Amino acid sequence: MRHERLLYGIILFSLLGIFLQVTSKFHFFYIEQLQLFQFTSDYLADKIIYPGGLSLIIGEFLTQFFIFPYVGPIILAALLTLATGSMGSLLQAIRPEKALYSLYALPALALLLIQYDFNYRLQGTIAFLLCLFCLNGWTRIRRFRYRLLAASLVTPLLFWAGGPVAGLFVASMTIIEIFGNPKRGIYSLAIVAEFISIGAGSVWGLIVPEYRLAFLPDAYYHSTLETPFTLYLAWLALPVCLSLTFICPKTKFRSKRSIVLNHVSHAIIILILCWICIPRYDDRKSYTLKVLDYYARTGQWEQIIRRCQGTISNYLYLTHLNMALAEKGELGERLFAFDQHGPQGLLVPWNKTFAVSTLLSDAYFAIGEIAIAQEMAFESYMSVLGDGNPRNLQRLVQTNLIFGAYPIAEKYISILEKTFAYRDWAKRHRAFLYNDEAVEKDPLLGPKRRGLPKENCLAGIEGIDKDLLRRAEQNPEDQLPIQFAGAFYLLSKDMKSFRTILEKYYGTSVLPSLPTSFQEAVILLEEHDETYWKRFNVSEPVIRQFALFREQITRNRNNPQLARLIQTTFGNTFWAYYLFK
Fold it and tell me: What is the pTM of this model?
């Protein structure tokens, strides 16, 4: 039996690890940045003194390693395998004559479903495991009075270590006692009263801010958000499985064949549940955003561009795409080669969430708007699930180095030096402190500093386009500000403003030549004036393509499918965007 359990555990761990790696590897990269674990005694002391502190520390400690490939799926697969094994051991200890294998995996499946929600803390899974471990140890105590004494001691300890999961332990213990011996089970209600007193006392003593955080799994979820039903599934599954273990009849095996059939039938039940539940709760809608977020974080711009082919209806995706084009210096050339939908695709409207704030910080940093990038990084840092996040702390280091605010940058660097995954990055950036020459020579920080406004002003107060044009005049070597401003006008279909910058800057060091999308807009400004085209050196290929475009428009003027035909043939042009979007 021991070898059989070990074999099943290895198989389950392997299958879970492979499944999570194939289907959700970017999810783990994403949630790693939602907390900032520090190897300091003060950091640990501040957390461990509160209910659930130990499980929180363990959860954050494990989460910090999710930044490395394969580690996240391996860790979660191990935790879920432990949960399944602990559940099986518990049910076997209660009723060894029953082989209800499907019940072993139900809590683990419920835990798997909530993992897909990035507002959930891994702390909840650790706390659940602590509860199972305590139940396994408690059930091994044979004499009732000792079990009762052990439960009275475990409950406050588990509340300190795991938080409200102590209530789940008490509820499970009560179910086991009542089903085992209803008369003696009445005494277990004293442990229920003890837990209620502990939970209520923690709220009265202002240790826990709300009753729901003292008694419900809400403590393991983002405190400002509404908790989903998925969060409660594991807490419901455990007492249900315990009850079914007592209620279901004994399993009788008369041959090896019946044993195999029992194993297969329970495996099929679990597979059916996975097939039904995982697609419903796996948060597939946000997975593409997690993929793009990872590529943006690691500077894999070409991967973002490849991911954004075809129809795009999400401004978050478009902002990632246009940021990637800007980083590669291809925004003006390839802007309309993709499914654009207005200026919101350049900079998605801010909604004060972590995801949008982080994306906007990246986008503003890419176009050199350092002040707004810093603001968005700070907003994101404050709105994250845990106590800060390393990604935006890195951005705050960079922006303060660019501004020359070295004491502030040093403060943030000292925090990152206390982490595991970002320690080396922080040490490298310490070399920039109080060293203007090093900053100005750096290939990333130097150009950003040279692009700063020479005069202090409120960023974005006149509109982002005005800030970009001011920077374009100040630093003509950087073509991105003028191209981004032009792209903003074209996506807004603001041809008057586009004509103004075109006639003001073309032929100067600010705009020595026109990218393809700008040339197409020139033709649209003066469709019948070829002299105007020549003034701005519109290329022959663009002129020939416009002739074909106009011919198709004329030939299909009364065709109700005109828009579709144009999108099929000329969908990568500004003309198609201007007329049909």
Answer: 0.90
